[in-house]
Amino acid sequence: MATALLALVATLTLAPPAQAADSGTQAAGKYVALGDSYTTAPGTGTYDDPDAECRRGPLTYPRLWAAAHPSVSFVEAACSGATTAELVANQVPQITPDTTLVTIQVGGNDVGFVDVLTNCILTIDDQDCLDGVALAEQAAHAALSPALAQTYAAVRAAAPSAQVVVVGYPRLYTIGGNCGILGLSDRERTALNGAADTLATVMSQRAAEAGFQFLDARPVFDPHTLCSGNTEWVTSLEWGDLDESYHPNQAGHRDGYLPALTALTG
Fold it and tell me: Which residues are catalytic?
């Protein structure tokens, strides 16, 4: 089971060629989407090719934004499972100097969040979960923070005039909500939400230093997290299709990320 859960956002090889929109006329800008599985299709259940490593699909916020701006050419460089190092090596080179907009959503894989989440699901002792979360938060400050600074510098060097939006991760749970007595305890859920807060802090600080905008997904998703009692914008544990688990679903991309991104970019 641990092996299966680790496949949520598994190890990736070099991303296949980016998908680009052909505007057919002189483009009124160029949008390049960088990121990991939160940027691609896991959680939506709809893929271009369900066997492709990057797991891209038509219902993600970058695709939806591009569809709403047909005069802007679009390059989808994002790939499921990407770390900052993989993003710099494989995705940033797809940016060209004429790029006018870049979104970048990466960091969760750098701190081993899949491992942390797997441990929290499988362990009986809450403290094991909390200890794993604490280690991930330490990694966010010690390793991810400088890695993001380098990543953002590489993006700016590749797109010196572009608007760059750093897209954050949502909290997963409403604490004290209607999750029932099964599954994770509220103590574990609180710790996992705390990890999302730590990621947001680190990402927003490095984004500000780079002169980038930060899209904070937490207030956007909070009314629609797991256990909220409202329409949920994040998938829960899907035993029959584990790759879908703990990612934004179709509503999360369409009603969560897309309007928030549009509010920043027009």
Answer: 37, 247
